[in-house]
Amino acid sequence: MENVDYIIVGDGYASLFFAHQLIKNNKSFVIFSDEKKSASRVSAGIINPVVLKKFTTFWKAQEQIVFLKKTLDEIEKYTGQNYLIDAPIHRIFHDENEQKLWLKKSANDDLVYFLDKNFAHLEGVKNDFNSGKVNQSARLDVNGFFMGLFDFLRNNRQIINEKFIYSTINTSDHTYKNFKYNHIVFCEGMGVKNNPFFSDIPVVPNKGHHIKVKLFQHLPENITIKKKHFLFPLNDNTYFYGGTYDREQLHYDVDASAVEQLTNGLKEFYPHNFDIEQVNFGFRPTVKDRRPIIGRHPQQPNMYVFNGLGARGILNGCYFSKSLYDFIENGIPLHDEIALKRFFPQ
Ligand SMILES: Cc1cc2nc3c(=O)[nH]c(=O)nc-3n(C[C@H](O)[C@H](O)[C@H](O)COP(=O)(O)OP(=O)(O)OC[C@H]3O[C@@H](n4cnc5c(N)ncnc54)[C@H](O)[C@@H]3O)c2cc1C
Question: Do 167 and 293 sit in the same domain of this protein?
Answer without folding.
Answer: yes
